[in-house]
Amino acid sequence: MMLSTSRFSAPLLRACTAALLVLAGGASAAEPASAPAAAASTPVAGGVVLEGVHFDPSVVVGGQTLPLNGAAMSSILSAKSMAVGFYLPTKQTTIDGATGVKGPKRIHYCTVRVLSTRDLANALLDRIRQNTTSEEFAANIVQTAQLGAVFGTRKELNKGDCVNIDWTPANQTTEFRLNGELISEPIKGESFFSMMMKVWIGPRVRASTREGILGLR
């Protein structure tokens, strides 16, 4: 079910839609990112495996060791598309806790099928609309425009491609890396990273995805 956009101003929606359509390669509308039930993660020595994707028990971001908070499957166009994990400074089991905890953070996901950047853009826009307040949306117009350029030169992500989205407080920036390679200019602002986190743990995200990432499953 799509969230009504009446609480967002028309210029605001047009600005953010146009930004993400750069990534979509001209897609005219976002499709709902509904999902089937998420697969259970399997603890293994040295981490967690989910649909063949291995998540290390911890990573280092900004000089700080971050434990794996949780992992889950995320779907686009009703098809399992990526395994997603969050690495946070301390264990968090709520949306506010995860977005509000101070320190470096990482969103790590790997695709489990070939994924077009058009479908990815539609899912991002749909989930951002559904899971942010009008104030949060408005505060991140410039950042959303920058987000549109992150994968703008790529038509698709291949199966097994992995993306790190890192928040580094020392620089107040979010960095995107594809298979270890920096793929865009850093994006400024802590509220932008919190908005990105809500793509996978927001209140209108499928419960199985949100609860898996928050370590509740």
UniProtKB/TrEMBL annotation:
Protein name: Chalcone isomerase domain-containing protein
Source organism of the structure: Caldimonas brevitalea
Signal peptide feature range: 1-29
A Pfam family recorded for this sequence: Chalcone_3
Domain of life, source organism: Bacteria
Keywords attached to this entry: Signal
Domain Chalcone isomerase span(s) in chain numbering: 50-215
